[in-house]
Amino acid sequence: YAHGVDREKRGIAWVFIQRHDKSRRDLDEMVKFIPFCMERTIALSEAQGTEQICIVFDLAGFGVKSMDYELVKKLLGILGTFYPERLGKVLMWNGPALFNLFWTVIRPWIDPV
Questions:
Q1: pLDDT, averaged across the chain
Q2: Which of 44, 48, 92, 113 is 20 to 30 A away from residue 2, measured at CA?
Q3: What is the pLDDT of residue 105?
Q4: Using H for helix, E for strand and C for coil, what is the string for the chain?
Q5: Minimal CA–CA distance to 20: which of 92, 72, 79?
Q6: What is the Cα–Cα distance from 86 to 102, expressed in whole angstroms?
Q7: What's the CA gap between 50 and 35, in Å, rounded?
Q8: What is the pLDDT of residue 113?
Q9: What whole-number distance in Å separates Cα of residue 29 and Cα of residue 10?
Q10: Which residues have CB under 8 Å from 58's CB, separation 6+?
Q11: How far is CA 18 from the centre of its chain?
């Protein structure tokens, strides 16, 4: 959800991984929800005179049920296609050791630009 701004006045989108269960999510609904969250966060940034946003992934409780490769691919596609240059910073917080395996798989999918 969108809440607050960082030190550079970028709107912050908070993502709590512990609340995600890939077996219970509807991918089509998530594909609609991602732009909704992005637009709310962009509105926070624009209210501060900034164009970029910050996304904070709280990885506390990350586990096998949270490893949603299909959703991550959709998220990266949406960000790259519809929100290029909007992402100012991504923070991964409270990452358990299991997250390293997940990161190893998804890191090559990320456009470094």
A1: 93
A2: 113
A3: 87
A4: CEEEECCCCCEEEEEEHHHCCCCCCCHHHHHHHHHHHHHHHHHHHHHCCCCCEEEEEECCCCCHHHCCHHHHHHHHHHHHHHCCCCEEEEEEECCCCHHHHHHHHHHHHCCCC
A5: 72
A6: 24
A7: 18
A8: 67
A9: 26
A10: 14, 15, 16, 17, 18, 93, 94
A11: 13
For helices 98-106 and 69-82, the axis angle rounded to 10 degrees is 50
How many Cβ atoms sit within 10 Å of the Cβ of residue 34? 19
Residue 112 scores a pLDDT above 80 = no
Listed residue (76, 74, 30) closest to 55, CA to CA: 76
What are 54's two structure tokens?
A: 């910050």
Determine the residue type at 11.
Answer: G
**Cα gap 21→64, rounded to integer Å:** 9
Nearest CA to 71 out of 7, 26, 5, 37 is that of 26
